[in-house]
Amino acid sequence: MRSWTLVCAALSASLVSVLSFVIPLCLYLNFQQSHLIHVVSNGMEVMIYLTPLLMFFTFICYLIVFAVVKLPTQIFDLSQLLKVSLIFFTCWMFLVIVILLEDQVNQIDFSTLMMSLLIYFALVPVLALGSMSANVCYFVMNTKKRSRMDISYE
């Protein structure tokens, strides 16, 4: 992807990914506290404090990943999704291994590793939504650019 198309695709992917993760989490936190109507709750704190930080980090990560990955050929591009999830898996497992090797957990405590794998597999649909939204944004911008070029040639 090139320049503005890359930026818009990464912005679209980060918006969809973060909102598809944060909104159910906030609803769960509100339901857990039985504060479905109240404004002040853990869900609202997550929405206010965590969402902008996640938006920034996912935007930067999607920029880097989409700059490396080839251009999409369809909206649900399985090879692109596998590459994005492999990059995420590598980074995630590096973080987990650092936590395990730092001696903060017991040496025989593999529950941290299993929980991290469970979190990874739970986040794969969020990555898929982000990749699909980026591909849709890319195709929409590409068709608009082509239609403008066709009009200018006529």
* Uncertain stretches of 5 or more adjacent residues: none
The percent of residues in helical segments reads over 70%
Large-scale geometry: globular
Distance between the termini: 27 Å
- Please state roughly what percent of the residues sit in beta strands, choosing from under 5%, 5-15%, 15-25%, 25-35%, 35-45% or over 45%: under 5%
Q: How many H/I helices?
A: 4
* Mean residue pLDDT: 80
By helix and strand content, what is the structural category? mainly alpha
Largest beta-sheet characterization = none
Order of helices and strands: HHHH
Radius of gyration, taken over Cα atoms and rounded to an integer in Å: 19 Å
Quantity of strands, as a count: 0
Quick take:
With 154 residues, the chain is mainly α. It has helices spanning 3-32, 42-68, 78-101, 111-153.
Summarize the structure in words.
- The protein is mainly alpha-helical.
- The chain has helices spanning 3-32, 42-68, 78-101, 111-153.
- Helix 1 (3-32) runs antiparallel to helix 2, helix 1 packs across helix 4 and helix 3 runs antiparallel to helix 4 (111-153).
Q: What key attributes describe this structure?
A:
globular; 0% strand; 154 residues; mainly alpha
In terms of topology, how is this protein built?
Layout: H1 3-32, H2 42-68, H3 78-101, H4 111-153
Helix pairs in contact: 1-2, 1-4, 3-4
